[in-house]
Amino acid sequence: MNRIYLIAIILLVFACKDEKKKHVEDQKQVETVKDSLIFPEESHFKSIRQITFGGDNAEAYWSFDDKQIVFQSNNKNWNVSCDQMFLMNFDETFKDKIPPMVSTGKGRTTCSYFLPDNKHIIYASTHLGDEKCPDTPLRKNGKYIWPVYDTFDIFVADLEGNIVNQLTNEKGYDAEPTVSPKGDKIVFTSTRSGDLELYTMNLDGTDVKQITNELGYDGGAFFSPDGTKIIFRSSRPKTEKEIAAYKELLAEGLVEPTDMELYICNADGSDLRQLTDLGNANWSPFFHPSGKKILFSSNFEAERGFPFNLYLIDIDGKNLERVTHSETFDAFPVFSNDGKYLAFSSNRNNGGGRDTNLFIAEWKD
After folding, report:
1. Rounded-to-integer distance, Cα 38 and Cα 53, Å
2. Which of the listed residues 33, 159, 289, 308 has the most CB atoms within 10 Å of its CB?
3. Cis? peptide before 289, omega within 30° of 0
4. How are the residues of the chain apportioned to helix, strand and coil, as percentages rounded to the nearest 5?
5. What CA–CA distance (Å, rounded) separates 241 from 136?
6. Looking at the predicted structure, is the pLDDT value of residue 196 above 80?
7. CB 265 within 8 A of CB 222
8. Could you give phi then psi for residue 326, rounded to 5 degrees?
9. Taking the model in full, what pTM does it have?
């Protein structure tokens, strides 16, 4: 009997050792996968975590306390037909589960952002124009285009998805809203003047002010950490041919986002100046936590229009530095408010498919 107990104990010890060895091997495998998401030259990433695993996932924005993130996705496995807004906690991933949807599920949505109370979000939606997903043209005359839906308006919703306020009701496109880190203003893009210009307003939709007034698509705007400056992308056509082409497309509710540079100005629109002059498409800019640099996406080094990578540049246009080294697509970089993490969208690790997923990198300067 004692021999049986002894054998059992020996087997149990070896089983525990095997289990411990398996656990260590599993951990190493996880770390290997985790490390493989970072390319060797990406020195600003201390670690990286993949959040989504399918569909197109983008524009992930942090709550003011950095505990949650709101983002848009068209993942068909999440029971949506086009972009809707989803909520996640900072430490979550969604390989085997679906995040809660915080938009109505009607129309198409874009550009959600937290309000300072961390209990409400703003986002643009077309659902008042039509509850169905609008058509999404991607090319016209062989050129890549973006639709500018005139049924987009900006709404406030709670984190259960209930709309509690409508901030815009002008005819035309009102979208791309973001909130100042100071918690006092919203900047957004609108066609209410007949062109795609930037406007600011209070959190309740009052005191609307136009801050850009030059022909071209001014959009994707963000405030600096101290709320005193705004960075944005613009197409700014210059020749008669470019101007005619821009106006023709805009009349059809379309823009061609293949030639854009970054511009920076004060929060009231003053001291406007061009930040980049790189060629191709420079877009999705976001302020570095220091307020002295801009992180943005660009394909200026790509002769065929691809890939897109992330770059840092000083706010005086100097010291351009490449941050990511993908052969596909990296864009929509957004720093957490404490500056420790970076959320961004990428085609990396998608098996060679077209899925664009969310990633969170631990940032180091």
Report:
1. 17
2. 308
3. no
4. 15, 40, 45
5. 26
6. yes
7. no
8. -85, 160
9. 0.89
